């Protein structure tokens, strides 16, 4: 038996203003997208924005349902919409933010969204950067989905 350790590196920006212009715009798109969330059950609004290789941006927000599991997270709404509209464009970056009790707040993709992100990385062969709005208005950036879902599901079918 051998004990092994996994370390994950990421960067953190002090505020939105520290982000490079394109990434800042992407996070601002995610922030605006929170307004379209349909979250009457949790009250927690999430906005996501996906930047594609051709420079276009596709947004999404959480869509809840009275039959709870039938709802969908903001990230997957954005990812599925991007892939449906521009299937050949690699996803370069994804930004995600929460909105609760009148202010923007931390949001980090759930496990199912991470697995979905991994699928699109595998499809395009292009690592995506993931920007998460974090406590105190800081922005966390993780390069490559493998760091978010180590040992994620893979299969040779
Ligand atoms: N939610 C997202 O939109 N993204 C995530 O990564 C996790 C959770 C949504 C689902 C639900 O509508 C609300 O946040 C509260 O869980």
Question: What would you note in describing this structure?
Answer:
By secondary structure, the protein is α+β, with helices and mostly antiparallel strands. It has one domain: 3-Layer(aba) Sandwich (Cytidine Deaminase, domain 2). It is 25% helix and 25% strand. Helix 2 (74-85) packs parallel to helix 3 (111-124). Tetrahydrodeoxyuridine binds at residues 39, 42, 44, 46, 62, 64, 71, 73-75, 109-110, 113.
Largest sheet: 7 strands, mixed
Bound molecules: tetrahydrodeoxyuridine
CATH architecture: 3-Layer(aba) Sandwich
Q: State the CATH superfamily name.
A: Cytidine Deaminase, domain 2
Which ranges are low-confidence, i.e. pLDDT below 50, for 5 or more consecutive residues? none
CATH class: Alpha Beta
Q: Provide the domain count.
A: 1
Query: Radius of gyration in whole Å, from Cα?
Result: 16 Å
> Termini distance?
30 Å
Total number of strands: 7
Counted by DSSP, the helix tally is 3
Multimeric state: single chain
Average pLDDT score: 97
